[in-house]
Design goal:
Layout: H1 3-22, H2 26-30, E1 34-42, H3 46-51, H4 53-65, E2 69-74, E3 80-87, H5 92-102, H6 104-107, E4 111-118, H7 124-129
Antiparallel strand pairs: 1-3, 1-4, 2-3
Length: about 130
């Protein structure tokens, strides 16, 4: 089973349980926002990355304004960074690809992305409020 199929199966079972517990319709329970973790790893010297940081952060601010970016920041030590993203449940992979492809770091070959769809259970209500 692929990771995508496993994610959908997991989301489906979580959605059915939440629908049962809350009295909601199953479709309402599973078509809520999906989250993802993006791990960025720098592929060029830090000096080159720092030269593009303003463009990268401007891009991240647009994602924040659109409700896609929940939080972001550099890793420690500074060899990359991480993003917590909110994406539509019915468009997970294409949405994540668009986030990656539009990042100046990615476009300039400064960083590679690892995109991990994530179905949080504990703390999800707090994430949904952010």
């Amino acid at each position: 089973m692929s990771w995508y199929a496993a994610t959908l199966l997991f989301r489906s079972s979580v959605g059915m349980r939440r629908a049962h517990e809350t009295g909601a319709r199953y479709s309402d329970a599973i078509f809520s926002p999906m989250y993802a973790i993006a791990i960025l790893r720098y592929r060029r010297p830090l000096e080159e990355v720092v030269a593009a940081v303003d463009d990268h952060r401007a891009y991240l601010r647009t994602l924040k304004d659109q409700g896609i970016l929940v939080a972001s920041g550099p890793a420690h030590p500074r060899n990359g960074g991480m993003l917590i993203l909110r994406v539509p449940d019915d468009d997970i992979i294409p949405s994540l690809d668009r986030v990656r492809d539009a990042d100046p770091y990615y476009q300039r070959g400064l960083a590679q992305y690892e995109l991990i769809p994530w179905a949080p259970t504990i703390g999800k209500d707090e994430l949904d409020k952010m």
